[in-house]
Amino acid sequence: MERIQFIPTVDEVLDVALPHLEKAEDAIVSFGQGCEGEPLMQWRLLETSIRKLREKTDRGTINLNTNGSFPKRVEKLCEAGLESIRVTLNSSHADYYRRYHRPKSYTFKDVLDSLVIPKMKGVYTSINLLVLPGFTDREEEVKGLIELVKRTRLDLIQMRNLNIDPDLYLKEMGEGVGIGISEMIGILKKEFPSLQLGYFNRTKENFYST
Fold this sequence. Notes:
By secondary structure, the protein is α/β, with parallel strands linked by helices. The chain has a single domain, classed as TIM Barrel, CATH 3.20.20.70. Helices cover 44% and strands 16% of the residues.
């Protein structure tokens, strides 16, 4: 992010992350949170940091919160020892994704690949689904989400309220009618009994717990 005037060194990352992984209960270290820029822009720093953390301890969980813009970089982090990944999106359709996220130098396919590749490598995968009633619960969105889960074999959907002017958002996305968020959740649970729905990243001890 342009507001940040420095890039931490690997040692500085370890100074913060290692004591937490070694001592904290349900320890989890996350690179990226959505408000400080895209962590994949510093993927080599992350790759080295993850390797060094895992050289020193196998305790805790190492997670990446990302927009999924560089799947090859995601693959490198998985190979370094990344254990879970969360990719943010507002829609399962490329057109609506572009209207909101306005990606530069990457595509919606890259975003999906950043879920498929980790899953193939045994990494726990989730999406950060930005939810706005009246859009997210439209039938075409629900159908698209079902196809996305089938394609990526997703483990978890984290549902976040999209804090945006609804009139502005729906003007950009077009008109439509939702079936209701609770109805949408019911459909997902029926279609994918093992799919988890939640709000937070999970530690590896709780990846597949109910």
